[in-house]
Write a structure and sequence with these properties.
Length: about 200
């Protein structure tokens, strides 16, 4: 089933709901660390605009809270303004005519992980008109998660916090995404100092 949006909201390709939806989807992937399957199974009820967070049920049925920055929260807010408040998928698939795909009971349906990949491919194609070099890079939805973890670690966020944010069961898994160069690690070690032996003798 599908529900039609008022014609006033869909006069041109760039003003159709797909554009704010795609923006919110890609921004959420980039700034939340969600897996693709976690993104597509989110519902409107999972979104907390006050906390700028999403309730996530990850692998192994482990629940966590994923936070997004203010810029992403604004994009989600804009999308929800177009989507409406009907319970159902937060990011439903949208037909070419600007119609949201719905379930038999009229709720926004969940898109597939493959649909997310198609959105990414489509937007990369559009961006390549401004920067053809983009086509030389192979980009997949999981790259957003990889980049999210790398950005956190680059910013000095501790491994345990990064692990909790992305829902890894082991810190070793999170550590694989550490892209900090050797010089950064070397500089970190240079900050360490041995205890002063003189202080130890004074205290004894």
């Amino acid at each position: 089933m599908a529900c039609s949006w008022p014609r006033a909201t869909t006069p041109t390709t760039w003003e159709r709901p797909a554009t704010p939806a795609d923006s919110a989807i890609l921004a959420t992937l980039y700034t939340s660390g969600l897996r693709r399957e976690e993104l597509v199974t989110r519902t409107l009820a999972d979104w907390n605009p006050d906390e700028q967070s999403l309730r996530v049920l990850g692998r192994g049925n482990k629940e966590r809270v994923a936070y997004v920055p203010a810029d992403t929260a604004r994009l989600i807010k804009d999308w929800v303004g177009v989507r409406g408040r009907t319970p159902g998928a937060l990011f439903p698939p949208i037909r070419k005519g600007g119609q949201i795909r719905t379930t038999p009971d009229g709720r926004p349906a969940h898109m597939t992980g493959q649909a997310v990949r198609k959105i990414l491919i489509k937007r990369i194609g559009q961006a390549s008109k401004l920067d053809p070099a983009i086509l030389d890079r192979r980009v997949a939805p999981h790259d957003f998660r990889r980049t999210f973890i790398g950005e956190l670690l680059d910013a000095g966020v501790d491994l345990a916090t990064a692990q909790a944010l992305v829902g890894h069961s082991s810190p070793a898994t999170t550590a694989r995404y550490d892209r900090r160069p050797e010089k950064t690690r070397r500089a970190a070690v240079q900050r360490l100092r041995l205890p002063d032996p003189a202080r130890g003798r004074q205290s004894s």
